[in-house]
Amino acid sequence: MKKSVFKNITQIGVLALVFVITLPGFIMAGDSQTVVKKHGWKTPITTENWPVDPAKLHLAGAPHSLIGLTLEQIVTDPNIQIRPDAASCMDCHDWAEEMTAESFCPRIDDFITTDQDGEGPKPQVLKDILIDWKNRNCPD
Question: What is the pTM of this model?
Answer without folding.
Answer: 0.69
